[in-house]
């Protein structure tokens, strides 16, 4: 049975692992940012940008989020934008290597 368990991971390259588990929702894991906007945002402009960008984030298009909020000029949003993919990478590699 060990052979069958390892067969599912045999063709998973690093690029596929990165695309599937690290940057889902586009650069900076924009899908997690949109979800956080829906739960925590009190600003009407940010909520509107989050609602408008939701269909595009599913297809990894984040320009509406990056320039609409704007992430690149807001330090408090830039840190999670950089750290969420790093945390996703660490977690996915941990689970991949331990085969959980």
UniProtKB/TrEMBL annotation:
It holds the Pfam family PTS_EIIC. It is found in: Cell membrane. Residues 19-85 form the Phosphotransferase system EIIC domain. The chain crosses the membrane at residues 20-40, 52-72, 78-97. Keywords: Cell membrane, Membrane, Sugar transport, Transmembrane, Transmembrane helix, Transport. It is a multi-pass membrane protein. Its main location: membrane. This is Phosphotransferase system EIIC domain-containing protein.
């Amino acid at each position: 049975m060990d052979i069958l368990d390892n067969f599912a991971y045999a063709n998973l390259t690093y690029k596929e692992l990165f695309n599937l588990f690290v940057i889902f929702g586009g650069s900076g894991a924009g899908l997690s940012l949109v979800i956080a906007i829906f739960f925590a945002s009190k600003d009407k402009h940010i909520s509107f940008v989050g609602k408008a960008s939701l269909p595009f984030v599913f297809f990894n298009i984040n320009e509406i989020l990056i320039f609409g909020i704007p992430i690149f000029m807001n330090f408090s949003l830039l840190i999670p934008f950089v750290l969420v993919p790093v945390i996703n990478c660490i977690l996915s590699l941990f689970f991949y290597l331990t085969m959980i």
